[in-house]
# Entry
Amino acid sequence: MSLDLFSASDFSEEVAISHLPFTRDITESVPLKPDANKNDNYSPIFRNKATASRLIQRIHPDLDTHHKLFNNAADMFGDRPCLGKRPYDYKNKTLAPRFDYFTYSEVKTKKNNIGAGFIRSLLGNPFLDPQLESHKKVVNHLRDWPTYGLQKSGRDNQDFEIEKNASFILTLFAVNRLEWVLTDLACSSYSITNTALYDTLGSDVSQYILGLTESPIVVTTNDKIPVLLDLKKNFPEQTKSLISIVSMDPIDLVSQNWFDQAKELKITIQDLNQIEELGSRNPIRELPPKRDALFTISFTSGTTGSKPKGVMLSQAGAAAYITSLTCIKPHAAPGDKVFIFLPLTHVYERQTSAFAWSTGYYLAFPQVTIGQENVNAFSNMLEDLRIFKPTYMSIVPRLLTRIEALIKGKIKELSPEEQDKVNQIIEYKIKEQAKHDGAKGLNAAFDQYPPYKFLREIVGYDNIKWVQTASAPIAPSTLVYLKASLNMGIRQQYGLTESGAAITSTDDYEAKAGSCGTILPTGQLKLRSVKDMGYSIDRLEGEVMLQGPQMFKGYYYNKEETDNSIDEDGWFHSGDIARIDPKTGRVSIIDRVKNFFKMQQGEYVSPEKIENRYLSSNPQITQLYVHGNSLQAYLVGIVGVEYEKGLKFLNEEFGFNKIDISEHELLEDLNKVEIKSKFLEKMNQNVRGKLNGFEILHNIHIEINPLTVEREVVTPTFKLRRPVASKFFANVFHRLYEIEQSLLHQAKLRTAKL
# Structure
């Protein structure tokens, strides 16, 4: 059965793409007929309703790699804006109030020059040592590139054949930049596998990745050069293959001291402009990768605090994850734009950006901040958005809750009459959008009301049509409110690095918020009963298991973890617990297999389920981390609140009249036992009947924004790192358990005395 949506004999690549996205059936999934060997522990297999008869790998036979998809886009959209950024004056550290761009045709030329430049510069590197395996691959790249790529994956990769067959590994180490995508495209067109480092990894993990991949070249930003030199100095064995650093910033910024250190450490330093010029003077024709060639190694964030696993994605897998979004999302009309804000080091934003350029969007990137101090990423994002005014963007729950708080705060600044009118409009839209799937609640008079329109302008969403969110749970109330207040659609998605990011998605205007939508055409899904946790396929609840063309090929040089996660039938065990709606086939993530623990009385507790219940039922809180263990009889939690809501609680519940107090003063008050007992009481009232008695929180600690990447308690995609968070808040938990103890028990004692 064909893996192609459209055949080459009937359609050209351009015509095939023009038939997408699907307009019917794409928002539902359906169960396949049970096979003869049905296992009562597993649900039926679910596929997207639009393509239920087969799994799709690509749109067209000639669009079967990441490389071919971009070249096709360059041919289709040659003169359209492709990649843009705000010009940055490195000397004065100032930004232009505009975005400049390269066209699709210009990007194609630039990425080819850069790809050729990487190869030429490495071949001419004075520190190249053919005795090292990765350097030998550099020497033989122009000869061996057609051989890269094996039809193996998962358990079939017995002796690391996939890893040994790959090219040398180029490493990216940078925040989102136009140059990041240029480098990624260059690697793809010249059969070079890449990987990425990011700031929060720390030196131990960074050296581990550089050692495991034996990467000879790192493309980075100027501020990361001394970090890389220190890694080479302090971990000489692990970084012995590293001989080239390429800066995305001008070579003029590199100090003489760094050049001297680099020479001693047998490393060359160049900038990307020099690489591009070298490739332009000494061109190499494209070296198009095979379908099975290794596209990238994406290292997971390591939610357990252990060393990250390198997820191997092939060129065909990348083509599949681009195809999946191309089937469901609107393609760009001239002038449509996307802002690439989330880290490109993770597959989620790489999938977003690849879909965007494959269908003709104009992609822009966050402002350069090299040389600046005290950078506020959220404020910078808003500044960039107000200038660029995107059509859509990817975002994560933590940012959406901050936008929600910003919008509500701005509404309070309006006159009483305007506040009433805006809130009436929002309530109207909430009701209209809940009537049925696809209902936008558009109203010409309401939509043009200046104070309401102004809410979009505050965020830079003047032209926004929809956003998409993934990577972490989000309160349905936040989705409902933002759709209505910002007059935009929101797609909620689910996926993992192992699935090439999103493998399920909602429509932009789904009436009932909270699901992650339906399985996409490039994957299939089934559930496994997890009876110890109370989840059974009889109720269509269980662990999510995934299979399909966009799934990963295994973990890089980690056969044990590969075999642990992929069963003998080729199904990936996600560790996530889902519920499937029997009418629509839509998926809701409700829990996590690996996170449950046993309480003192022997009850099994799933913290993610509890967190989701509290967050969805308590709009006054923005973050929650539930903690407990087998030595304790009850649960405690770390609670995040917005400043305004915390202050409002103090004033309304305790008759205070406090105005503009500091965050420190606010938190001191909120964490007084009497006050937080009242706060906890309200939280528990709102989950009554939704949780078991042993799942109720007995004590809490309140902060404004307790779960941050800077604290390393969440990953860069804002997934909670529970073992790390447990250590970070150890002193807090000691106070909650040993000193303050159960606030609920104390309340009962007070009541009994009365």
In short: Residues 130 and 136 are 5 Å apart (CA to CA). The mean pLDDT is 92. The chain is about 35% helix and 20% strand. The first helix runs from residue 13 to 18.
